[in-house]
Amino acid sequence: MTATPADLPVPRQSFRDLPVLAVAAVWGSSFLVVKEVADPGTALAVLVLRFGLVLPPLGLAAWPALRRLTRREWLGGAALGLVLGGIFLLETYGAVHTSATNAGLIISLTMVFTPLADSALRRTRPSRPFLAAAGLSVLGVALLTADGGLRAPSAGDLLVLAAAVVRTAFVLATARSRAVADTDSLALTWVQLASATAVFALAAPFAGPSPLALAAEFGAAGWGLLLYLSLFCTVFAFFVQAWAVRATSPSRVSLLLGTEPLWAAVFGIAVAGDRPGAAALLGGLCVLAGTEWGRRTAQTPA
């Protein structure tokens, strides 16, 4: 008897992984978008607008769940939002003061930091296949991003390295925080974004034009790109991440998000007309192979 599609087993874990891969893709595209809407003098104002635009509609959608939050959940979500704000500040100013090549390579170290830190907290040793998969992914990112050549570390490199460390802390804290363990994902996303926006708004007067002045200068194209950053690269991305680290493992999430540099290269080739060399193409294959290998070997909840 021939099996019908309904009779075939459903790859539940694969379906859980797809939204995280989508996040990696939109984050990869964000490199091009940010270059169009921001420069070193307006980066912080763009962050305020990017986060501030989504808070009212997201707050309306999350209002029933927000009303049910306990004081502990509000404080836990706000604390995670402060960490999130720190990630964006470090990444933004780090990228401004270093090359895209170095920034892409250094931030990808989150793929290694997360499973190692997770294992340290659990007092367990990562499996050899998982470490090999992570190593292959990092090698791939190195080949992919080093196609234009590396240079000596700078202050920007150190800022991006700090962002990679804070990213690791954010993923693990979201997964392990008892304060938000059962919190509605939409409400948690709103609290985190509101907390991060407060950080950006407080810092904005000390760096570049005000967000309102910058907003007045945007045309239709600029607003379209800003809305893309707000809706897809912010709300969708962090809603999925908040859900995924509780539905799967931090290590799996980190490896899947580690394809972000590959997606950045894909959008660079398709949209910006970049022409990578042989080393970059080989690196892309290594990222795909290492991520899939690691995804299959990472432990996940039953």
UniProtKB/TrEMBL annotation:
Q: Cite the InterPro entries for this sequence.
A: Diverse_Substrate_Transporter, EamA_dom, EmrE-like
Q: How does it sit in the membrane?
A: Multi-pass membrane protein
Where would you find this protein in the cell?
Answer: Cell membrane
Residues annotated as domain EamA? 20-145, 156-291
UniProt entry keywords in alphabetical sequence: Cell membrane, Membrane, Transmembrane, Transmembrane helix
Q: Which family does it belong to?
A: Belongs to the EamA transporter family.
What this protein is called in its record is: DMT family transporter
- Which organism does this record belong to? Kitasatospora camelliae
